């Protein structure tokens, strides 16, 4: 009898998506981002996963920059800018979010 084949949660669209295995949720929330230079500015968080987030801001950031994301009612979360496309940014958390924290943030965004 043939063993069932493991199927990942989704098939990547292309090679650049292969590392994106975490569940992503669309969110819409204002937050603050701070860089090492202590510059603090507002961003719009567009989607979130346990391993990172996508945001939009007019402030210029460069891939490799270490930042801290502050969401309402939560401690700052360390992340690094992974990519930039005009005003949109993808950032990876230094430590993945605990599932309960992820669910809490998603619930906050739906209020």
Give a summary of the structure in a few sentences.
The chain has 111 residues and is mostly beta strands. The protein has one helix at 99-109, and strands spanning 25-35, 40-49, 52-56, 66-70, 77-85, 88-93.
Describe the structure.
The N and C termini lie far apart (50 Å). The protein contains one helix and six strands. It is mainly beta and 111 residues long.
Overall helicity: under 10%
Beta content:
35-45%
Unreliable segments of 5+ consecutive residues: 1-18
Radius of gyration: 15 Å
Quaternary status of these chains?
A: single chain
What can be said about the biggest beta sheet? 6 strands, antiparallel, barrel
Average of per-residue pLDDT values: 84
- Give the overall form: globular
Number of strands: 6
Strand order of the largest sheet: 1-2-3-6-5-4
Order of helices and strands: EEEEEEH
- Span from first to last CA? 50 Å
- Count the DSSP helices: 1
Which structural class is indicated by helix and strand composition? Answer: mainly beta
